[in-house]
Amino acid sequence: MDRYCIFNNALPDELCNLALAELDKKQLESASVGIEDPVLDTQARMSDVAWTMDGHWLEGILFHSALRANKLSGWKFVMLDAQPGNVQLTRYPTGGYYDWHEDWSPFIDEPRIRKISVTALLNDDFTGGEFEFYLDGKEHAVKLKRGDVLVFPSFVQHRVAPVKTGTRNSAVAWITAKRTL
Prior knowledge:
alpha+beta; Jelly Rolls; 5-stranded antiparallel β-sheet; 17% helix; 37% strand
């Protein structure tokens, strides 16, 4: 079973440019942490975000990537009622990061949970800002290029390392489904 899937160049340059142009037009806000009661915590995260509207074209691409990864990877999550959420457009400036975290919580009393996380890298003209997993007691950096889509189970611990130079831009979505495996 694969721990994660990468779909190289799933977003061609034209779509990356379109998403970046949208991000430039949006009113960004400081990113928060937490699912139930989000709070600003610059010790855990320093980035800015904006959200897409329901039915945005990125939603479909990221949702399809998640369903494809679930099938190819052997995760076998039950996804009959799967739903994409709005896409988070995220901008990490120089010095920006998101410390170790998971995208789900087993303690949230909701009928639906995040099962699959998806991130698309919209640019790669920056240094640092590596996407890393914590697997088997070790940090594992994932090499992503512009247009790559990374898909992984939402319970896997991960982070975005500090950006050293430039700005890192990404599109992130979480696929929710009923609380069954």
